[in-house]
Design brief:
Elements (H helix, E strand, L loop, with lengths): L1 E4 L9 E7 L6 E2 L4 E6 L4 E5 L4 E6 L6 E3 L3 E7 L4 H7 L9 H4 L4 E5 L9 E7 L6 E2 L4 E6 L4 E5 L4 E6 L6 E3 L3 E6 L3 H21 L8 H10 L17 H9 L16 H5 L8 H16 L2 E9 L1 H18 L6 H14 L6 E3 L2 E3 L6 E3 L1 E3 L2 E3 L2 E2 L7 H16 L13 E5 L18 E5 L3 E7 L2 E15 L5 H16 L2 H5 L2
Helix pairs in contact: 4-5, 9-10, 9-11
Length: 501
């Protein structure tokens, strides 16, 4: 038996949502065949099968939130004769569950894997009673933990003979919940059709051909909530338990943490449009707020005269393009200047791990990139070992992959410092927010001609404001100011980069 677990999701990404299962229990799977799809705040991750065999159990259902390394499913290695044979012979799919129920043996219903560091759960709801006939994979009960709600499917078709953990009971991660008897094959085989018929009624009432989560149907029935008024977050709009709880408990459309909306006239209300935040936007909002709450974040500012960099770029851009096949931009200059400054002020390139400070003798540079679905930060590894041309090629390649949504999780992990360029959108000044666990982020802004006093004369120079946000728990004000001054000096006199001054 091979376990299918949540892969590494990326730097500071600790959870994902199960968006779609491409297979169901009993299906044959090949090596590297896609089993399911996970959604994070940055990218969509497909989970392949590490072995060939049969998908024996799905632990994390669609719509559930799971942590890194959480158990998603189990695959039995070897041939998967029962399910495929039924399809090849032209028989109906429903009897495919019969082999699991044909032995007349008792089948234990166990607590599924609850997730990393979760050791117990509470039985919140039983959807079936003793004596009820169930189909394989039909939902039996729902467990609640301090992180997520877990629906427990039937491991086989049969009849519930005993419920060992009633509603309200607290069970550990290895507890037995109930016992199924797989005898009574005729009744068990008929269960799938009845299950589908009963489950289709709530879905039909919402004018959607989608089966909602059993726990969601139960709460909507108890509270008299119209399914059509609930926005589903599952696949194809499937309504999950959390969606119903939000609809039932929210006293107002605005989040509880916000001040209540001011009264609006009927005319204004008719011209408003209310759109549910995407899961990506909700996660971005949560993580940005967590960053502000965790780090002692402070921002220091300076300005840089871009005259020398612009002159150097204009002089060599054609030759650079001809030789290296990539355009010479400003980002390689800023990347080199930051690497130069990080060597002198290593605190800005470090991070806090508990009570330790981790100093990094390398620079994995994160370059923030805007995409149609949100901001992502691909990482250029070992940027301190790269030439101008190598940096420009890496930035161009990763920027294109980010816009196409093709970045892998590995390409967004392990950054030690970040550069964000709000100037491409016309920003003149901003205070960037840290990308945890990093301790520094440089904000670039719009280049603007301004009158400057140079050697007692007023001249027009292309100026840019720079902003360094840093974690004051590890970086002192002196170090932050020194870092920004070194960046300014390197850009105003690029020869300093060659001389390592």
């Amino acid at each position: 038996m091979s376990e299918i677990r949540v892969p590494t999701l990326g730097e500071s990404v600790t959870e994902a949502t199960v968006a779609t299962w491409f297979k169901k229990p009993g299906d044959a799977v090949a090596v590297d065949e896609m089993l399911c799809e996970l959604e994070t705040d940055k990218v969509t991750v497909e989970v392949p099968s590490p072995v060939a065999g049969t998908l024996s159990e799905i632990v994390a259902q669609e719509g559930e939130t799971v942590g890194v390394d959480a158990l998603l499913a189990q695959v039995s290695e070897g041939e998967a004769a029962p399910a495929p044979a039924a399809k090849d012979d032209g028989k109906e799919d429903a009897p495919a569950a019969a082999p699991a129920a044909s032995g007349g043996d008792n089948v234990d219903v166990m607590v599924p894997t609850l997730g990393e560091s979760v050791t117990e759960a509470t039985v919140s709801t039983w959807f079936k009673q003793v004596g009820d006939t169930v189909a394989q994979d039909e939902m039996l009960c729902e467990l609640e933990t301090d992180k997520v709600s877990v629906e427990v499917p039937a491991p086989a078709a049969g009849t519930i003979t005993e419920i060992l953990a009633p509603e309200g009971a607290t069970v550990d991660a290895s507890a037995k919940l109930a016992i199924l008897s797989s005898s009574g094959g005729a009744a068990a085989a008929a269960a799938p059709a009845a299950s589908k018929a009963s489950a289709s009624a709530p879905a039909a009432s919402g004018a959607k051909d989608v089966e909602n989560a059993p726990s969601a149907n139960k709460i909507m029935a108890e509270k008299g909530i119209d399914p059509a008024s609930v926005q589903g977050s599952g696949r194809d709009g499937r309504i999950m338990k959390g969606d119903v709880l939000k609809a039932a408990t929210a006293p107002a459309p605005a989040p509880a943490a916000q001040a209540p909306r001011a009264p609006v006239s009927a005319d204004d209300a008719s011209r408003e449009e209310r759109v549910k935040m995407t899961r990506l936007r909700q996660t971005i909002a949560r993580r940005l707020k967590e960053s502000q709450n965790t780090a002692a974040m402070l921002t220091t500012y300076n300005e840089v005269d871009m005259t020398e960099v612009m002159a150097l770029r204009n002089e060599y851009k054609d030759l650079f393009l001809k030789k290296h096949g990539v355009k010479l931009g400003f980002m390689s200059f800023f990347t080199k200047a930051c690497i130069h400054a990080l060597k002198e002020v290593p605190d800005v390139n470090a991070e806090i791990d508990g009570t330790d400070v981790v100093y990094k003798n390398y620079v994995h540079m994160g370059i923030a990139a805007g995409t149609p679905t949100g901001l992502v930060v691909p990482v250029i590894r070992d940027a301190d070992r790269m030439s101008f041309a190598e940096i420009e090629k890496a930035i161009a390649e990763k920027g294109a992959r980010a816009r196409d949504g093709k970045l892998s999780m590995a390409e967004m992990q392990g950054g030690s410092f970040t550069i964000s360029n709000g100037g491409v959108y016309g920003s003149l000044m901003s205070s960037p927010i840290l990308n945890p666990p990093q301790s520094g982020i440089l904000g670039m802004h719009k280049i603007q001609d301004r009158p400057m006093a140079i050697n007692g004369q007023v001249v027009i120079r292309p100026m840019m404001y720079l902003a360094l946000s840093y974690d004051h728990r590890i970086v002192d004000g002196k170090g932050a100011v020194t870092f920004l001054v070194r960046v300014k000096e390197a850009l105003e006199d690029p020869r300093r980069l060659l001389m390592d001054l």
